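Following up on my earlier message about glutamic acid. Here are the inputs again, as you asked, copied directly from the submission form:
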Amino acid sequence: MKNPFENGMEQLSKVTKIKSFNEEFITRLRQPDRDIRISIPVKMDNDVTKVFEGYRVEYNNARGPYKGGIRYHKDTEINEVKALAFWMAIKCAVANIPMGGGKGGITVDPKTLSKGELERLSRGWVQKLSDILGPQKDVPAPDVNTTPEIMDWMSDEYEKITGDKTRATFTGKPIGKGGSEGRGPATGLGGFYVFDSLKGQLGLQGKCKVVIQGFGNVGLNAAQIFISHGHSIIAISDSKGGVYNPLGFDIEKLIEHKKNTGALAGFAGSTDITNEELLETECDVLVPAAFENQITDANADKIRAKVILELANGPITPEADEILFNKDIPVIPDVLANSGGVTVSYFEWDQNLKGEHWSEKEVFDKLLAMMDDAAQETFKKAKEYSTDLRRGAFILALERLEEKML
Ligand code: GLU
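Thanks, got it. Here's what our run produced:
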């Protein structure tokens, strides 16, 4: 299988086959502006120093400061971070926010660290990168396994080193410490707004049966939001496996069950399923909300969803995209579907710089308007070029980026 960056570049190539862009512009988009690898020494609790590998990729800042999360995962490596940074550049342009694309990470399984070790590691990442970060330079945020608390440590470390008191260098901070109302559920909520905007045009009506892969911040919030709008979650999974109940889950009880037992399996009234089975479950909406490369040419043919809403970054390979396109299964692509997170991050940055604090209602109203706009603009482009929504979103983004870069 190709790595995520190769997939991202293939998506770009596919788009340039149906619309031509300035050649130099596309050539420049095939490489990040900078890709930085750092080593972070951390004194562990047992007094032994361990060195971790960290990254920041600054992909493109034609539309504004580099923007994008920091991922902590044992499999995180430079090609993944490069892909995620490229997608951020596209995503910010689709959402039409004045930010560029960046991404960071550390190769680590955070569950193996104590809280003190995690804090020292997070502060270490900032110490190594503080000179390239800043409200007008590069603005990181949470991603997989990074929390508001981690953003608070990082923001504090940045302030200690540079004296900058705006707290606008990191977004996704806790509320009360410079964080925005609504940033927690923003990715799931934005995804729901995009879905709601497009569902009629994609042939869905009434209440939907939804399957979600992922039980982290994004998957869980999405589950709660879909349910609160009358839809039902008939299957959901975490990294260990999933559960299926055709009647729909009481998600709060399922959260409680996982808290008590450490797993989703064995939940009363449901059937245990594997992650593979989950993806192949018959449903109205399939929501991959975990990792890259989940739907590939090996299983795309077995997908029985009417629509796919990509809340994870890069869950579908370019080969699988073609198979789904031929099967008439529309994919609402990541760069549109999960752009609610970075949009509220942009709101947070804006509030920090202006010294304001907006109400949750104000944040959600603004988010709804922007997601609806991005969804409809994407749909229009896809129609105009008789193509899928991913290519539609890329065309929209590339037009906006090209205008700034030329
Ligand atoms: N990590 C999120 C993403 O992939 C959010 C990035 C941000 O808020 O800057 O879109």
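One observation from looking it over: The chain has 14 helices and twelve strands. Hope that helps, and feel free to reply on this thread.
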